[in-house]
């Protein structure tokens, strides 16, 4: 049994394993039906959720999912044989996209990963399965305009529906002081979430430090209140600790289903309406085989649901003639719909870190085990064996960690009103236009929408219970003695554009990080707040001393700003908001029923529809959006 022990769950769960491919898995056009009622473009997190729910509820209607990638095994964020920070050798393929240089960040590019397999980014993400604050979704609903609700009360039931949460066993809960509230869950969805049966021996160090700084533990951070120290479940199976992802829960584990087809290794080029009239929908779907480059059309009798993700959905629309008119004309693409919001409004979380070291090494008798033990062959072998137990035990059940703080701007700086007043002033005097991409600074819809976003964000940032900063952690052992700073509500806006030299290649990303200067005000406030860790009794007792940015740098705004520019991660892999749910006169791409403005028979269902990025990693929100979208579509077709 090794040194990790075993905890027997008080019930038996059937392990959700990948089901062998069925006849419903297609690889060439000759295997397809003459037509489909629903075609879902993209077999990712939201797309497979919609396909599962539509095919399950409408047995008489056929659903086709078209996916660029293949069915792949998807190991967890931290599974054997990896070490704590090494990549999994058998991870599924992914896109690695590098943005254009960011002038305000030392001309450094953002590096963004996106899943390229059935299940999309749920097959490669960090498995940190949190939800935003209720204020995030209320703000989304506010800027989205009139229509069906997307506020917290409206989307919360879909968070619950999407997941099956398993409580930790009593002894594990007592060992780590886990807290939760089952009323935040209660669903029996196809995606599993649970808490790890393991923590590194120094996980409590930062937990104690945060409490010394006045950050209070929150019993449950998935129920809408998310300010404080949070335990966050991972998207993993409670028995095997294997990754739970959309490719399993919404495809493999619901097959065989006679009306649910999946076409892999194919790229959707565009959607095409008869006579280029978007009011004559639904459109045809033009598809390219990745094996032989053959082009063909799929006939759709009901609807097309575009779910290619925040980075690829805009390029499908742009190739279809839907997007900013000036860009489409430059690209030589006939304009079907002038929607300047397509590929605009790009948002992601970003931020630097603070780092420290210890004047004396950890006491091995007090801190065991630590991540460095994974380099010990004996320990690693025991950890591997423990992961194979029933239920799984040991370090490999931890994924990437499951604890974080979420702190509001009023609780981390007394200057918060000075920051929000800058936002109100730029909205009042329209100085914000100069912070937008050059080709959008005169677009009346984009200007109107961005102004409303700014006013909404200023109000959001003033809420004492609305987080502005996230800092996740699992250990602080050297050289992992660091605290990351996530800017949860950036004001800067980037773009996603078709690559004109190769329109079928991955898109060109212009993150434009730091283009709105107020983002730096928040970055500086976050860093200065995190530096207070080094003054806490527990880190002082351990001999902690700061290595970056240091007191001299932190005391000077310009020096600290330079540090932020040099050390920030420009993407924490949460891209969104590039086909925003907003009114068309305010730069919106879809309405509150997810229909593309002016395009009959076409909806978008993925993270591109968010108008504002929530204070969360996006996986749980992607499932909830898929679940709510499915109900909206079923309501229209019932």
From TrEMBL:
<keyword id="KW-0274">FAD</keyword>
<dbReference type="Pfam" id="PF00732">
    <property type="entry name" value="GMC_oxred_N"/>
</dbReference>
<dbReference type="GO" id="GO:0050660">
    <property type="term" value="F:flavin adenine dinucleotide binding"/>
</dbReference>
<feature type="domain" description="Glucose-methanol-choline oxidoreductase N-terminal">
    <location>
        <begin position="309"/>
        <end position="323"/>
    </location>
</feature>
<feature type="active site" description="Proton donor">
    <location>
        <position position="574"/>
    </location>
</feature>
<dbReference type="InterPro" id="IPR036188">
    <property type="entry name" value="FAD/NAD-bd_sf"/>
</dbReference>
<dbReference type="Pfam" id="PF05199">
    <property type="entry name" value="GMC_oxred_C"/>
</dbReference>
<protein>
    <recommendedName>
        <fullName>Glucose-methanol-choline oxidoreductase N-terminal domain-containing protein</fullName>
    </recommendedName>
</protein>
<dbReference type="InterPro" id="IPR000172">
    <property type="entry name" value="GMC_OxRdtase_N"/>
</dbReference>
<comment type="similarity">
    <text>Belongs to the GMC oxidoreductase family.</text>
</comment>
<keyword id="KW-0285">Flavoprotein</keyword>
<feature type="signal peptide">
    <location>
        <begin position="1"/>
        <end position="17"/>
    </location>
</feature>
<feature type="binding site">
    <location>
        <position position="268"/>
    </location>
    <ligand>
        <name>FAD</name>
    </ligand>
</feature>
<dbReference type="GO" id="GO:0016614">
    <property type="term" value="F:oxidoreductase activity, acting on CH-OH group of donors"/>
</dbReference>
<dbReference type="InterPro" id="IPR012132">
    <property type="entry name" value="GMC_OxRdtase"/>
</dbReference>
<dbReference type="GO" id="GO:0044550">
    <property type="term" value="P:secondary metabolite biosynthetic process"/>
</dbReference>
<feature type="active site" description="Proton acceptor">
    <location>
        <position position="617"/>
    </location>
</feature>
<feature type="binding site">
    <location>
        <begin position="45"/>
        <end position="46"/>
    </location>
    <ligand>
        <name>FAD</name>
    </ligand>
</feature>
<keyword id="KW-0732">Signal</keyword>
<dbReference type="InterPro" id="IPR007867">
    <property type="entry name" value="GMC_OxRtase_C"/>
</dbReference>
């Amino acid at each position: 049994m090794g040194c990790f022990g075993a905890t027997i769950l008080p019930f038996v769960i059937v392990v959700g394993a990948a089901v062998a491919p069925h006849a419903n898995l297609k690889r060439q056009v000759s295997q397809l039906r003459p037509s489909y009622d629903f075609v879902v473009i993209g077999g990712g997190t939201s797309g497979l959720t919609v396909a599962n729910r539509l095919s399950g509820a409408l047995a008489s209607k056929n659903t086709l999912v078209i996916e660029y990638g293949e069915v792949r095994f998807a190991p967890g964020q931290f599974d054997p044989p990896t070490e704590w920070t090494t990549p999994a050798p058998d991870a599924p393929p992914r896109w690695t996209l590098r943005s254009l240089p960011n002038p305000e960040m030392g001309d450094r590019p953002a590096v963004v990963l996106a899943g390229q397999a059935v299940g999309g980014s749920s097959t490669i993400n960090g498995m940190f399965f949190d939800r935003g604050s209720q204020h995030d979704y209320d703000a989304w609903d506010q800027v989205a305009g009139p229509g069906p609700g997307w506020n917290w009360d409206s989307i919360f039931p879909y968070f619950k529906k999407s997941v099956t949460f398993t409580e930790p066993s009593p002894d594990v809960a007592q060992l780590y002081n886990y807290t939760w509230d089952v009323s935040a869950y209660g669903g029996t969805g196809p995606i599993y979430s649970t808490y790890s049966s393991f923590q590194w021996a120094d996980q409590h160090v930062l937990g104690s430090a945060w409490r010394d700084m006045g950050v209070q533990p929150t019993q449950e951070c998935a129920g809408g209140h998310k300010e404080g120290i949070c335990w966050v479940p991972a998207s993993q199976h409670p028995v095997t600790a294997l990754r739970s992802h959309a490719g399993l829960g919404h495809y493999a584990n619901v097959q065989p289903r006679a009306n649910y087809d999946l076409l892999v290794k194919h790229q959707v080029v565009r959607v095409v309406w008869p006579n280029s009239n978007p009011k004559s929908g639904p459109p045809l779907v033009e598809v390219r085989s990745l094996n032989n480059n053959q082009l063909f059309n799929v006939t759709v009798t009901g609807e097309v649901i575009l779910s290619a993700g925040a980075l690829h959905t805009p390029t499908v629309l742009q190739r279809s003639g839907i997007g900013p008119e000036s860009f489409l004309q430059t690209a030589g693409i006939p304009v079907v719909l002038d929607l300047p919001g397509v590929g605009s409004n790009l948002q992601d979380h970003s931020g630097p870190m603070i780092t420290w070291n210890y004047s004396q090494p950890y006491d091995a008798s007090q801190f065991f085990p630590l991540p460095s033990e994974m380099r010990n062959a004996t320990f690693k072998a025991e950890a591997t064996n423990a992961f194979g137990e029933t239920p799984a035990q040991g370090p490999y059940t931890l994924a990437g960690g499951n604890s974080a703080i979420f702190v509001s701007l009023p609780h981390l700086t007394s200057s918060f009103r000075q920051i929000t007043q800058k936002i109100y002033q730029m909205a009042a005097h329209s100085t914000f236009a100069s912070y937008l991409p050059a080709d959008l600074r005169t677009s009346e819809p984009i200007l109107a929408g961005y102004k409303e976003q700014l006013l909404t964000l200023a109000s959001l940032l003033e809420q004492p219970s609305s987080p502005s900063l996230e800092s996740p952690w699992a250990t602080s052992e050297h050289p992992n003695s660091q605290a990351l700073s996530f800017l949860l509500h950036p004001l800067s806006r980037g773009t996603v554009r078709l690559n004109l030299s190769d329109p079928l290649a991955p898109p060109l990303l212009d993150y434009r990080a730091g283009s709105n200067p107020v983002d730096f005000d928040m970055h500086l406030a976050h860093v200065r707040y995190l530096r207070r860790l080094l003054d806490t009794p527990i880190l002082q007792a351990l001999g902690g001393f700061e290595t970056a940015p240091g007191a001299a740098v932190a005391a000077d705004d310009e020096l600290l700003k330079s540090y932020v520019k040099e050390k920030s991660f420009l993407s924490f892999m949460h891209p969104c908001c590039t086909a925003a749910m907003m009114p068309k006169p305010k730069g919106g791409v879809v309405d509150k029923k997810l229909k593309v403005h002016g395009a009959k028979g076409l909806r978008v269902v993925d993270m591109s529809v968010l108008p504002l990025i929530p204070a969360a990693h996006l996986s749980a929100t992607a499932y909830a959006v898929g679940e709510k979208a499915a109900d909206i579509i079923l309501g229209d077709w019932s």
